[in-house]
Amino acid sequence: MKALELRRIKRMNADVTFMGFGALEIGRDWGMGGDTKRPDDENAGMVLNSVLDLGINLIDTASAYHKSEERIGKFISGRRDQYILASKCGEHSEEPKTYYDFSYKAIKDSIDKSLKLLKTDVIDIMQIHFGPDPTGVLDKGETVSAMKDAVKEGKVKYLGASIDGPLAARCIKSGDFDVMQMSYNLMNQGNEENIRSAGEKGIGVFIRTGLGNGLFTPRVLENMEKLDPQKQACIKRLLELVNNDIHMLMSLALNFLYKNENISSVLLGTKKPEHVKINMELLEKDIDDGLLGKAQKIITEEMT
Question: How is the chain split into domains, by residue range?
């Protein structure tokens, strides 16, 4: 099954399933349109256990995802040997908002808090959750220093950064990071070169926004009029291409990512257990390269 295909991260000497789980929506109100409320404890637990039951072995969370780390610790810490755990630091939870603090002490304290909430002795991957001044964070170096010390102390195994564009390229070149988390999807391919470069260096690549923050999901149908005119025109043409079958469009978007061998895992989130299985099944559909080429042509015409 494509979703459960194991892809090796050379810097970690470990394998992750191509489909990973992004735990944002189980902890923080998020999403397109009116469906933004996070699930209650019981349903969050069902989602997390369903993810592991289906064979997915990567869970990505963050201190800024409000209840996410706590719920992971509560519901699946007893299955800790079944998944690679990635979290983030720098953006901190202060419900209903978050705040940024990239100082050495704040990062060390955040990692300790995450360990406690996640009910684990070690976090496999700790990533920088950049804010409004990512260049300043890298230049000062306190955040990376604190993360490296956490590795020396055995609290964290590997380091990552969640960032795009030129700063992602800088992080890749630095040698400090074992994993890069970047935005990338059928409509937004700006990190193409960064993904290639990371892959060549054995750095893991985790993809966020793989389904375009809902653009390639059924949610877009009820929110079409809220899109800017350019995206609206593009999505409408893409739907026409697949005979207005939104699930075929999802399959197209997922298979576009699957074909990139430098992508280690695509992080997909949901509030409902059944959606995880649907995503896996949609990835299984064979997509003709000609159809994918036509989709890319539409996107080029509409988005440039």
Answer: 2-212+261-288
- Taking the CA atoms of 226, 91, 217 and 206 in sequence, report the sign of the dihedral they define: positive
Q: What type of residue is 155?
A: K
Match domain 2-212+261-288 to its CATH number in 3.20.20.100, 3.40.640.10, 3.40.50.2000, 3.30.950.10: 3.20.20.100
Q: Is the pLDDT of residue 34 over 90?
A: no
In the numeric block, the tokens 């080429």 are attached to: 293
CB–CB of 210/268 below 8 Å?
Answer: yes
Q: Return the structure tokens found at 109.
A: 């304290």
- Between the CA of residue 163 and those of 5, 156, 184, what are the distances in Å? 25, 20, 11
The neighbouring-strand residues paired with 288 are none
Tokens of 76: 């699946």
pTM higher than the cut 0.70: yes
CA atoms within 13 Å, Cβ hemisphere of 36: 8
Q: How far is residue 124's CA from residue 228's CA, in Å, rounded to a whole number?
A: 39
Quick: pLDDT tens for 82-139. Answer: 999 999 999 999 999 999 999 999 999 999 999 999 999 999 999 999 999 999 999 9
Q: How crowded is residue 273: how many other Cβ atoms within 10 Å of its Cβ? A: 18
